[in-house]
Design goal:
- The protein is elongated.
- The longest helix is centred in the N-terminal third of the chain and has 25 residues, at about 50-75.
- The termini are far apart.
- It contains 11 helices and no strands.
- Among the domains are: about 1-80, Four Helix Bundle (Hemerythrin (Met), subunit A); about 130-160.
- With about 230 residues, it is mainly α.
Length: about 230
Amino acid sequence: MIVTAAFYIFSAILIGSAAAVVTSRNPVHSVLFLILAFFNAAALFLIAGAEFLAMILVIVYVGAVAVLFLFVVMMLDVNFGQLREGYQRYLPVGATVGAVLFGELLLVLGGWQFAPQASTLRLSSTPAGVSNTQALGRLIYTDYIFLFQMAGLILMVAMIGAIVLTHRERTTSRRQSIARQNARQVSDTLEIMEVGFGVGTNVTGIIRPKREPEPVLADEPHTHGVGLPGPGEH
């Protein structure tokens, strides 16, 4: 009785939070509702006896993915007013795509049926001495190891492709030049002056920092390194 009541309570909260994710106007609220949906889905997994999937759902999705979504939404200064400007223009296209997806779901659910041995397997006893995590690991890493490795390879290729597509070469960024730093002399950037007591800018003027000499390329003649005179030169 308690398990049944808990199932209906968690299911109702899960459905409500999932609907709020889609209907909420504030993206931060949508992410928070998504986290609530993950927690309730994990509770349903616990009721079904799949404690490993419940912990994975909480640790991976809530602890990493949902928090990452929240940080990205909060850090990006998104102009939501500008995003809603084309709502009416794209509404027919979105409604058409949604209708097609809904029709496909009806076709799938209409042709789906339980396997003949499903009721028997549901009532069968759990094997003794084998935990849920052990059975799941044996199934993934023994029976479907090649499909599992293929899925990981596809995800890695997708991640590399996303990095390559979003990478931009910044020409304005400053980079450290070790050769120029080692070749720089003290007299190039530092000058010691004797300034009398009470002498201000009226006498000495405004002293500007010394400009760093332009670097000399290594392939030019009569050079030794970067900005250094060659052997025998003064």
